[in-house]
Specification:
CATH architecture of the largest domain: 3-Layer(aba) Sandwich
Number of domains: 3
Largest sheet: 10 strands, mixed
Shape: globular
Number of strands: 20
Helix content: 25-40%
Bound molecules: guanosine-5'-diphosphate, 6-O-phosphoryl inosine monophosphate, magnesium ion
Distance between the termini: 18 Å
Radius of gyration: 22 Å
CATH topology of the largest domain: Adenylosuccinate Synthetase, Chain A, domain 1
Structural class: alpha/beta
CATH class of the largest domain: Alpha Beta
Low-confidence stretches: none
Number of helices: 13
Length: 427
């Protein structure tokens, strides 16, 4: 199975880091690749009780023998990249080999400034971004005024590009947002300061990955963000500015769709969301507080409390469809051990009508009320289970029911954050 995509099937934080780490350690993996987003991601990996969080780096950075790749579709803050690498080294981690695409776009400090002032300007309509400059960096890319990694190695070109990028932005900052203009020289100087350290890592990552696949090597594409945060397929405008769906992997890595063998959707046994935007199964009662507390639902990147709700099978079916999922990895089943009865959203009611599939418009989605089916809980701690058969009957029945309604086979179930706390579901 040479090319495997791991991606988020909900609104992020499903456990993609754990799923990637698991796949990278159970089968020999040659490359672990990020293809979209930037350091807005926060992926947790727990190895031998030690907790690590990766943001811009692929989780493969912790896997000995695997090469980590930041491909062309990622937006790269060199400052965040080196801070993260240095942080891991300071903890004694032997970091894996890292390659960075020459075509990846750069996040400079002005992108984060613009991200934050734009959010403030939006007031109550704000997206609730991570404030990392992701949206403004992708906007520059699409507006064709972006700076790419390769530009950092030519001062003249870099200066021209930063000038072009700041031309309109500075008018906006000074005249609309009442902020000070950003100085081109200071930005160029900062970006140049990363060039020497970055240069040995930079290569044509599309060529590298296609050659690896030609040679029968295994490549794992580690998704960031998630399907419902996709700029095309998510809850626009409450989305990120990239394409975290499976199709985005091909664009973001420069590999063709015919090369992908497996597409694994990571999905929680309930649902969470950070930031603003519609969320039909969101809970505002004691159950929501309990899910948040038992699940430790606090953002890895921003420390924000995650909004919590029950499992939404409409979202799961939608994610299976738009990503062509070959399988699902269901995480955090252990968190549901406290409930006597577990609701699962099987459809929506929209303006008095039952709707079984994701509605076409965001207006309808905003009006969607969950239609629940109830499942018997198991009311016990399952974190010590090490095979699917060890699970209480009601937990097995819950997994089988979710599989039935979610549009893809569930291959694995997480019963805790550790590598060993994963159960393979018999076929
Ligand atoms: P990602 O962004 O998709 O990689 O997910 P995050 O790391 O942001 O959030 C997932 C959280 O759930 C992390 O704290 C993981 O350690 C934890 N986690 C992953 N799988 C499981 C599981 O099966 N059970 C429990 N209890 N925690 C899990
Ligand atoms: P991982 O990879 C959860 C959300 C933000 C905000 C919206 C836009 O850990 O699952 P952005 O800064 O990207 O412009 O913010 O997207 N968001 C995430 N939510 N997990 C993530 O990453 C996220 N990355 C972005 O909270 O609502
Ligand atoms: Mg996360």
């Amino acid at each position: 199975m040479p090319a495997i995509v791991v991606l988020g099937a909900q609104w992020g934080d499903e456990g993609k880091g754990k799923a990637t780490d698991l796949l990278a350690t159970t089968d020999p993996i040659d490359y672990v690749v990020r293809t979209s987003g930037g350091h807005n991601a926060g992926h947790t990996i727990v190895v031998n009780g030690e907790k690590y969080a990766t943001h811009l780096l692929p989780s493969g950075i912790l896997t000995p023998g695997a090469t980590s790749v930041i491909a062309n579709g990622v937006v790269v803050s060199p400052e965040a990249l080196f801070r993260e690498l240095d942080g891991l080294v300071a903890r004694g981690v032997e970091v894996a080999d890292l390659k960075v695409s020459a075509n990846a776009h750069v996040i400079a400090s002005y992108h984060a400034t613009i991200d934050k002032v734009t959010e403030r300007f939006l007031g109550k309509n704000q997206i609730g971004t991570t404030g990392r400059g992701i949206g403004p960096a992708y906007a520059d890319k699409i507006n064709r005024v972006g700076v790419r990694i390769a530009d950092l190695f030519d001062e003249k070109i870099l200066t021209q590009k930063v000038e072009a990028a700041l031309d309109v932005r500075n008018h906006l900052l000074t005249k609309v947002y009442n902020r000070r203009a950003i100085e081109v020289d200071a930005v160029v100087e900062e970006l140049l300061s990363y060039a020497d350290r970055l240069q040995p890592m930079v290569c044509d990552t599309s060529l590298l990955l296609n050659r690896a696949l030609d040679a029968g090597q295994t490549v794992l594409f580690e998704g960031a963000q998630a399907t419902m945060l996709d700029v095309d397929h998510g809850t626009y405008p409450f989305v990120t500015s990239s394409n975290p769906v499976a199709g985005g992997v091909c664009v973001g890595a420069g590999v063709g769709p015919t090369r992908i063998d497996r597409v694994v959707g990571v999905i929680k046994a309930y649902t969470t969301r950070v930031g603003s935007g519609p969320f039909p199964t969101e809970l505002f009662d004691e159950d929501g507080v309990q899910l948040q507390q038992l699940g430790g639902e606090i953002g890895v990147s921003t420390g924000r409390t995650r909004r919590c709700g029950w499992y939404d099978a409409v979202v799961a079916r939608y994610a299976s469809r738009v990503n062509g999922l070959t399988e699902l990895f269901l995480t955090k089943l252990d968190i549901l051990g406290a409930w006597e009865r577990i609701p699962v959203c099987v459809a929506y009611e929209i303006d008095g009508q039952r709707v079984d599939e994701m509605p076409m418009t965001q207006t309808e989605f905003h009006h969607a009320k969950p239609v629940y089916e109830f499942f018997d809980g198991w009311q016990s701690d399952i974190s010590g289970c090490r095979s699917f058969d060890d699970l209480p009957d009601n937990a097995q029945a819950y997994v089988r029911a979710l599989e039935e309604m979610s549009g893809a086979k569930i291959w694995g179930v997480g019963v805790g954050p550790g590598r060993e706390q994963t159960l393979v579901v018999p076929g």
